[in-house]
Model the fold of this input.
Amino acid sequence: MATYTGTVRRESKQLSLWKNQPSTKTREVPIDKILLAIVLGLTVFGLLMVYSASAMLADKLHNDQFHFFVRQGMWAVVGLFGMAMTMKIDYRLYKKRAFILFALYMTIVLLCAVFFFPKVNNAHRWILFKGFSLQPSEVAKLALVAFLAYYLEKYANRVEDYKKVFIPTAVTTLLIVGLIGAQPDLGTALMIFITFAVVLYQACVPIRHLATLAIPVVPALVGMLVFVPWRLQRLLDFLNPWKNEQTSSYQVVQSLIAVGSGGINGLGYSQGKQKLFFLPSPHADFIFGVIGEELGLIGSIALVAAFGAFAWRGFKAARHAPDRFGNLLGTGLTVLITAQAFFNISVALSLVPTKGIPLPFISAGGSSLAITLAACGILLNISKHEGA
Done:
């Protein structure tokens, strides 16, 4: 009863603030230099770690130890250019019905288009064209957050209306989540769903409305985990990764060995051993294992602290935004990046079942890095505006 009463008080108090908040003038302030420094630092650190983790593999596969480093560097340049552009564009320009609808329609078209392209690693996740690849799920993240921020601001005075507010946002989210889950990419689908829940909570949509999603979502999730053999195997491997250390749980076991070998101080940059054809694709989803081995506990904690600092500055920018759209957009973008980071790190440490989720800014992956940097540009632009 006490918990329920506290929840009602939170909703009533915050909802009152949302409804009755007077319109404020906007003043432009200097860009959040701390947030910018964190983003640039993580990007540079990612490039260094991609080289360290991939040099031997690149030399074996492409006869060029800089192959993956150069590719990542090129995408970093594209992403930094995109970030510079989105930093300059007033985020409120995205708050247009035509833009939101176009972004949603294009996202759905791209998510459907992936099924007409060849599978890569047994999944339809990429649009491939003459050496160029795009992962539409990355675009979907930004489009959905923008839609949620737009729609929840538009109906800020009716957030308790189940049919008018909750149903449209939930149906749109479930459509995108369903298309991504069918690729299959359950990890990204879960990240998007978590972001959806946080943004609606921030907008003061009643928790009881969110709870109704358990009816369709929980059975579907259980079905995808239990009745899909390879997902069930991952769950069993999570419970005891050492049982199948040479087969199905090989990658996570090698990651744990890498992290354990690093100790407190690490073996030193580029001195790791597990990347020498023990840890599969060490420059991609399990790059945190290489970081733990080479930079040790100290380096690993520093990286976690950097993402924590990113979350702090991101939420600060969202909190001081002069309008609800900026608040919800900033919140959604911050949750997207930090939740993905901590999920990736948890996978590398076997704290959650194995899932292919890249580490933002760090893992090799072109479209992921470029779109993440573009999202950071939007967040930095939000930080330039405060309510006067």
Summary: Confidence is low (pLDDT under 50) at residues 1-13, 15-23. The beta strands are 26-28, 127-129, 132-134, 385-387.
